[in-house]
Design goal:
One of its GO terms (molecular function) is DNA binding. It holds the Pfam family SRF-TF. Keywords: DNA-binding, Nucleus, Transcription, Transcription regulation. The protein is mainly alpha-helical and 168 residues long. The chain has two domains: 78 residues, SRF-like (3-Layer(aba) Sandwich), CATH 3.40.1810; 46 residues. The chain has four helices and two strands.
């Protein structure tokens, strides 16, 4: 007689040690299905807890069984699954708003999109600088930074600097 773990799982009898490959299909025997459900539910909850601890993330698991009672099983590493679901809903709402903005631009023709981009590019920010001014300033800062780093290398090396800067 086969054990409960083998019924309906498609195990092939082999004389090898270790894990056996199993075919995922519905377990026909109700008692075996319930035993497997309990064991796997416990394992899933354990993995969810480990994930929350190892990766410092909020995890929520909701399982509703399909037996006559339809029992609810839940796990949350925070105070409640409800809080995680509320955060999930707010993220979905934000993503819809972002995708709505994206669709606003995707419906534009290329010429309109270029004009809108140029208009935004030339608008001034709160400091009174246009974007082109800021790009030019960034390039100047990068050039100055390169010069400063090369001077630093000269100062740290034993070779005297050709510019005439005395080392410390």
């Amino acid at each position: 007689m086969e054990t409960c773990g083998n019924i309906g799982l498609g195990f092939k009898k082999k004389k090898k040690m270790g894990r056996r490959k199993l075919e995922i299909k519905k377990i026909q025997d109700k008692n075996c299905r319930q035993v497997t459900f309990c064991k796997r539910r416990k394992g899933l909850m354990k993995k969810a807890n480990e994930l929350s601890i190892l990766c410092d993330v909020d995890v929520g698991v909701v399982i509703i069984s399909n037996n006559g009672a339809g029992r609810l099983h839940e796990f949350s590493n925070t105070n409640s699954v409800t809080g995680i679901l509320q955060r999930y809903k707010s993220h979905i709402k934000e993503e819809k708003e972002i995708s709505g903005e994206h669709s606003k631009y995707s419906s534009m023709k290329i010429g309109e999109l270029l004009q809108t981009t140029e208009r935004q590019f030339e608008e001034t920010n709160a400091d009174g600088f246009a974007v082109t001014d800021l790009v030019h300033l960034e390039n100047e800062l990068q050039t100055a930074l390169i010069q400063i780093r090369s001077t630093k290398v000269f100062l740290q090396s034993s070779v005297p600097c050709p510019i005439g800067i005395a080392s410390f």
